[in-house]
Every structure is written in structure tokens, then in C-alpha cells.
């Protein structure tokens, strides 16, 4: 048997990071937990890596990410000396290497539909994948002819555009009601088959109709959100990046900024504060001051959460005020990309205030979000009531928290959402200090029972 060579690359990185083997192991375990991967590495495991063994995917990606954050510069998997040359890489390359964003989306969707291939795709941690700098074209005056598309083709494009807008409403509503794990594969199949065919038959010369590209970008964004909520964080990021590519091809700054805002908040949830700040700033700058009021409200509300989590009180409150100032009631026929619901703004306000330590005002915002949320938005209601109950419990108000717990128990079984499951786990943990109280003990047992039930997440 060939003797393994010591991994000098990893040894040098540990020295540069001023980390022991145990500290690296703990950092990898913690980041794995954030991604839903349970790991139990210790200093002995890292010693094996230093002696030449290579852990299975996705551990090398985790090692590269924790070292990137520790050192403040990008560390690739190859630099750690832990990379593998396997068929997994060739599958990912076949998905990502296609330069055309439409072809890449279709390949990604068709790969995702296959459960075995989906598992391979989700092993690569792509959450720190950089967002490339974009050059946005300057709009030119029309020459007098709207476009070179035939009247019949223009009619088909307009009809198809309406169809895509309607599908965006359908899937956004389903996600609010039941979570991202519900009907996710249906949207992936729709994009891989119907949308691909639609884009092919409406192709005119060398350009695709921008309205259709915009619709495809928005549906891809929704699929990214659903995929992350179904527990497939890394595949979800790939969809978000595809949404960025399609929005840029369409020249749609608003859709691009909306997807970038989603990526920034996902990075924040994974404790990647640096990228969260960078991408949220980029989102606001890309949309610019001429963006629709709803888009500006949505972007500034998201950035306010990031500033608050980062401890930047003044910046957080300034962004929150801007978001509130630009918020408008929903116009007739508004869809998920043209309207920012008031209930969502209330929830974001609560997150900002909680991060800033203003618990009483946060409770008021959560109650306002609850009052304006439709009764059949089961996933959203679980999230709001769970956070309300946790906040009350942290203030010692057990009696006020218990009714919210019981209410969310009615909604939770209807959800297929990792966000809802994590919220329920956090609530169960928040009830632990009250384990001697009979009603709290019973409530905690009910939460534990629901957590143990089979779930998509």
C-alpha cells in the first residue's frame, strides 16, 4: 500500500490561521450544523487529514470556508490539499460550465429532478461562490421600430409573459402556505420542460424576448427560495445564481437586486456576515433610486436586518425608515415581484428591533405581522408565532407565550419547511427553562413529538 504524504498545505494554513487541530475541527462542526450536516470531528480527525487522509464531501468545502473566514481571504478546496478527483466534480462541472444561462438553468433543473444527482449537487458548498461584477447596458433611443418580431410572435410573447407572472403568483403562494418542500420538484420540471420549450419557440434572431427572460429569472428565484427551504441549501444557491444570470441577460435590474437580497440574507443565516453586507449593498446600488417603491422597500428592509445583526444601529434604523417610507399598499393584480406585503415588512421590522435589543417594540411588530397575515399562510404563521413565543419566553412571560405555541401546533403539520422545523426546534429549546411547569412541560413534549414526525427537511 502506498504511503500517504503529509498534507503540508493544510498544515501551513493552520499555522497562518493560528489554529490548533481541535479549533479547526470545532469550526468545521459548527459550520456543518448551520448547513444541516451533523459532524463530530475532533483534533484526532484533523491529525489524520494532516497525515494525508481526505474526508468525504462536503467536508473539504467546509474546511475551505472556515479558513476563508478566519484568514479574511479566499481559500479554495485545492489549497487545503483535501480535494478529490471524482465523478462528483464532473457532474457539477457539466451543470455549471455551460456559458448560456438558459441552457445552464435547464441542465440544473434536469439534474435536480434526479434524486441521486441532486444529492451529489448538494454536497458541494457553494454558498461563498462570488457574485461576478456586472456591466449593465445603457438604454438607447428607439429607432422607430419596436422590434423585429412578427406580430404573431409578439402576441405569443405577451401571452407567455402573463402565464409566467401567473405561475410566479401560484408558487409564491404555495410556499407561503405550505413551505418550500411542497411542489418544489413541480416547479423544477416546469422550468426544465415548459419554460425551455417556450424560450426556444419565441427565439427571434440572436435575442430572446426580455420579458420572457425576466419571467424565467423570477421563477428561478422562487425555485431557489423553495429549494433552500426544503433543506437543499447549496442547490438553492445555484438556482439563485442562475436567476442572477437570467435577470442580467434580460436587463432587469430589479429582479437581479431582489435575488441578490435573498442571497445576502441566506449568507447572514450561515454567519457569513462579510458577504451578507457586500451583497446587500450591491443589491441596493443595482436597483438604484429609480427602482419601484416596493422594490426599494424590500431591499432596504433586508439590509436593515443585516446592519442590525452586525450591531450597526444607526444604519439599521436608517434603512428601516427608508423601507417604511417607500412601502405602498398593494395595487390591483400585484404579484410577488411587484408588491412587498405589509405583513412581511412588519416581520422584518421585528427582526431588526430584536437584533438591536428592543424587545417591547419587536413584540408590537410581530403582533402587527400576525394580524395582517392570511389565515392559510401556514408556514409564515409558524414562523411568526414561534418567534413571538420565544420573545415572550425570554422576557419570562410564559402564560402569554403558551397560546402562540398551541396555535402554531395547528399549522405546523401542514408545512414542508425547514424554516418552520428550525423555528419549532428553537421554540422547544426556549421552553426548557420552564420544564417544571406542567403546561410548559406538556407543550414542550408536543413540540418534540411534531419534530420527530417524518418530514421533507
Q: What does this protein structure show overall?
A:
- This protein is mostly helical.
- The protein is built from 22 helices and no strands.
- Helix 12 packs antiparallel against helix 13, helix 17 packs antiparallel against helix 18 and helix 21 packs antiparallel against helix 22.
- It starts with 7 loop residues before the first helix and ends in a 5-residue tail after the last helix.
- About 4% of the residues have low confidence.
**Which series of helices and strands comes N to C?**
HHHHHHHHHHHHHHHHHHHHHH
Computed Rg: 23 Å
Give the number of helices. 22
Provide mean pLDDT, rounded.
87
- The fraction of residues in strands falls at under 5%
Helix content class: 55-70%
Largest sheet: none
Query: What overall geometry do the principal axes of the alpha carbons give?
Result: globular
Give the uncertain stretches in residue-range form.
139-156
Amino-to-carboxy terminus distance:
41 Å
**Total beta strands:** 0
Structural class: mainly alpha
Quaternary assembly: single chain
What topology emerges from the helices and strands here?
Blueprint: H1 8-17, H2 21-34, H3 43-50, H4 59-71, H5 77-80, H6 87-96, H7 101-113, H8 115-123, H9 151-178, H10 184-201, H11 210-229, H12 233-250, H13 253-269, H14 273-287, H15 293-309, H16 313-326, H17 342-355, H18 359-371, H19 378-394, H20 398-411, H21 418-431, H22 438-452
Helix pairs in contact: 2-3, 2-4, 7-10, 7-12, 9-11, 10-11, 11-12, 11-13, 12-13, 13-14, 13-15, 14-15, 15-16, 15-17, 17-18, 18-19, 19-20, 19-21, 20-22, 21-22
